[in-house]
User: What shape does this take?
Amino acid sequence: ANTVYHPACSCRAGPDGDHMAVLDGQLRVRGVKGLRVADASSMPAHVGCNTNATCVALGEKMADLLVRAYGSGGAVVPAAQNST
Assistant: This one.
């Protein structure tokens, strides 16, 4: 199959009450231990722009979630910088 669109939203993230969401707010697959998804498929709805920037943001969010959940493993994690 060919498409001119960017496939997305096939395993959407959502709150606990959303029966269509297969991912929770931490991007964990519900019912599967140790599996997370951070790509265009996890978006709950299509974005109104190219999906590249959104996927980069999802990757950054996933990295933050993993560092918070498991620690940095000794790696130096830069703190957010104030842009003032």
Summary: The chain is about 25% helix and 0% strand. The chain has a mean pLDDT of 85. The two ends are 49 Å apart (CA to CA). The first helix runs from residue 51 to 70.
